[in-house]
Amino acid sequence: MSIAESGGHGDLAWSASSYSNGAGGECVEWALANGGILLRDSKNAGGPVVTVESEAWRSFLQTLKHV
């Protein structure tokens, strides 16, 4: 996992949770990239971006399904 400034990620297709109502609530957005999954705060699209390796993201999602 790494954290970087947002710059250079403007051309990606960012998605938000289907539970997000679009009213400016707290939400995380993600985008697929060559280095894995990029995550950012939807309220601060120009802020830091966290990169998670694809396998770690898959494992995280599988764990959530069993909670």
Word description of this protein:
- The structure is a single chain.
- With 67 residues, this protein is an alpha+beta fold.
- It has one domain.
- Helices cover 18% and strands 31% of the residues.
- It has a 5-stranded antiparallel β-sheet with strand order 1-5-4-3-2.
- The longest helix is centred in the last third of the chain and has 12 residues, at 54-65.
- The chain is flat, with a radius of gyration of 12 Å.
- The two termini are 23 Å apart.
Which labels suit this protein?
alpha+beta, 18% helix, 5-stranded antiparallel β-sheet, 67 residues, single chain
Topology summary:
Elements: E1 2-4, E2 15-16, E3 28-33, E4 36-41, E5 49-52, H1 54-65
Antiparallel strand pairs: 1-5, 2-3, 3-4, 4-5
- Strand tally: 5
What is the average of the pLDDT values? Answer: 81
The tally of domains stands at 1
Oligomer: single chain
Approximately how much helix is present in the residues? 10-25%
The secondary structure category is: alpha+beta
N→C terminal distance = 23 Å
Principal-axis shape equals flat
Query: Beta-strand level of the residues, as a percent range?
Result: 25-35%
Profile the largest sheet.
5 strands, antiparallel
Count of helix runs: 1
Order of helices and strands: EEEEEH
Radius of gyration computed on alpha carbons: 12 Å
Q: Which regions are unreliable across 5 or more consecutive residues at pLDDT < 50?
A: none
Strand arrangement in the largest pleated sheet: 1-5-4-3-2
